[in-house]
Amino acid sequence: MLRKFPWILVALAGAVGWGTLALHRGETISAAWLVLAAVCTYLIAFRFYSRFLADRVLGLNDRRATPAERLANGRDYVPTSRWVLFGHHFAAIAGPGPLVGPVLAAQFGYLPGTIWIVIGVVVAGAVQDFIILFASMRRDGKSLGQMAKEETGPVTGVLTMVAVLAIMVILLAVLALVVVNALKDSPWGVFTIACTMPIAVLMGFWMKSWRPGRTLEATAIGVALLLLALVAGRYVAASPTLAPLFTWSGLTIAYAVMGYGFVASVLPVWMLLCPRDYLSTFMKIGTILLLALGILLVLPPLRLPALTPFIDGTGPVFAGKLFPFAFITIACGAISGFHALVASGTTPKMLMRESDARLIGYGGMLMESFVAVMALCAAALLDPGIYFAINAPLPVLGGTAQSAAEVIRGWGFTVSPDQITALAAEVGEKTLLGRTGGAPSLAVGMAHILSGAFGRGLMALWYHFAIMFEALFILTTLDTGTRVGRFMVQELAGHVWAPLGRTSWYPSTVVTSALIVAAWGWFLVQGVSDPLGGINSLWPLFGISNQLLAAVALCVGTTILIKGAKARYAWVTLVPLAWVLTVTLTAGWQKVFAADPRLGFLAHAARTAEQVAAGSLEPARGARLIFNDRLDALVALSFMIVTVVVVAASAREWLLVLMRRRPAAANESPFVETAYVG
Amino acid sequence: MWARVEAVLRVVRRISGMPDYAAYVEHAGRSHPERAVASEEEFYEEYLRARYEGGPTRCC
Fold it and tell me: Which of A72, A274, A342 sits opposite B52 (nearest CB)?
């Protein structure tokens, strides 16, 4: 009883946090309550639920040698102590997703996002990550696709691989779009990000040729140069000769990003990709710690209401009602299928003991969820009027601060034109109107927090610091993603013509890299030239694809539980699976077939056709818009079909095992006693 | 003092996914004393291949 006492206190504190969130409507409350509710829930969930999963459901066994011990090679199979690996795993899973999603979902108010992020991670996201990490650890670090193939058959395996590739394409497109929207017409931002390329190449040569092995030394120099570039950006933006050189339109940045993705994929990794990876990892971890510290120091009041009128689906940031779209928009942070790829990648090869998987798999995802909570705080501390001025598409707001203020007043939020222009001037931008994609409003929120905590009057510098930090690691997801996509295409193409499958054959590398860049570039350009800013149509598509991948991962997890004679505990994956399927299939269906042209792709195509027929839209442009709508509809439908097939194939397998018509044997590597003591 | 700094640097390296040549040399000496130890350059190349030719290392 005495040992449980502190946990009772934690539970009570959490209840107070949730109670305050729930009961205070229509008045401003402090972010402290949100943080308190989240952290207490995480602690309770980790202490009790993850222990239940570890001991009862998965049966982690410290006497069983891990792949890191059995296959140690000093390179990728390296036994790593628990907290170090926790940091490594967190750096791998935390990306732009948990930062951007909650900011967009703030159009419903802060409450729906908070509930989904905190509850979702506890029962769904962290469970998925933990089980996939466990499964891969028991199988020498095999990937999700390989496990799907071995446990449920070759069809599921191939479908999983195709799904992963397709999701990657949509993911890369939407992330690139976030970067484009954050950097367009911003010479300061473009200059800083452009500087990361030569800095990375310098670091690459430093580590490879000049001072081999001095990776930390090179990275320290890189970070210093990057901060210098950030400060110098202010002077570039102020210079009448330099500023025009770095003032790029959305389309120009889109092509530049595509060019970067291609170059990073065909160059040797040591030259560009790997040093940029180090640079962005350092900035990422540093900034997230800084942000956490800032939020705790400032404890900003949440100005956004708990719920906005837009829960009825009329919101300007993206279309669709609270259900299912809040749960689609916040993908990462609550549950992210993409994590299943990382949890079955480098991390399982580094676990020193089986029991460490609990902290790293379950705990790592709780930490990512906390990042999402911080992003939500950063968005919710903004004046609602300012939030919508930044996040609503430009054509909706009209071109000027006056028109924007009027439109926003019509939505029931007060903001003056002066406030809008003053804020833009304060952060060193010409305008912040209609900068959709989440990154700019997050940067404004972060700038408020960081300047409040660490230095007033530096708003512009903190804003561009935040933009740099976001763009930096989005581009890292982009280049590593393009490269991984290239390997996948090469593997698939190798079946058609063997030489294409050779990753070291240069023509194959160039062709397959161009192919994958063209694929995500198509959606990117579509998004950039979309009159409503593109985030509107692409972000839900990304959310749906990421959650459907989660459904596939949860299917694999369920299969592993049932085959491992743990069928009575299969609800731990079946419950989140049922939820994720309900949400994503509903959202997918609505995105394709809804009669409202703001929401449904096909309805939008039909309306565009009418506009062309009526002569209010140029036919060539209309044809392109209609093609894109139909393509988006096709993509959404294909994701849904692939997932339903995978679920059906898995369910068949479960029934066969449960009816004892198939042996209940999971394909784990044989037990080997650990040589570690204690 | 220096040993402590070195230990901290090792942690930083491991967290950010950087190669750790010293750890490799230690491992090779312990587990495969009969085989030749790769040079730092060879090790770096192998390390990058193992890390970046698998699945995604960075998430969304």
Answer: A274
